[in-house]
Amino acid sequence: MADQSNSLRVRLVSPERILFDTTADAVELPAKNGYMEVLYGHAPLLAELGAGDVRLHGGAEGGEQIYNVSWGFVEVLPDRVTILANDALKPEEIDVPRAEEQLERGHKEWNEAGDSEEKYAEALHVIAEAEAKLATAQEKH
Fold this sequence. Notes:
Blueprint: E1 8-13, E2 18-24, E3 26-31, E4 34-39, E5 45-57, E6 64-77, E7 80-89, H1 96-111, H2 117-140
Parallel strand pairs: 1-7
Antiparallel strand pairs: 1-2, 3-4, 3-5, 5-6, 6-7
């Protein structure tokens, strides 16, 4: 197990609240171009956040903690990770019927997008967010 000096300080913030400000041995998060894992000593970077799960491994709470996030940014420094998410939920906070309605709305927008690339992109955005919420909720049960 890593000692305290080799732990990352991890903070997840949404416009409504701070979900956590804790330590972890490793953090997995959904960058826009795919999942990435951050360990202590990681090279500094700034990345666009996608829709999916943030997973904290070890640290102050021990075990694995999961949070669903959608869109935003992540700043990685060698000893710290700051996640700024447009939307962030604990798995038990996910409203499954609402996420299913969001998924249906996304598919409807996709079907009605016609020749508009912007409308397709927005529909994919809605679909990805809904699918991520449903996957997180399903995994928790």
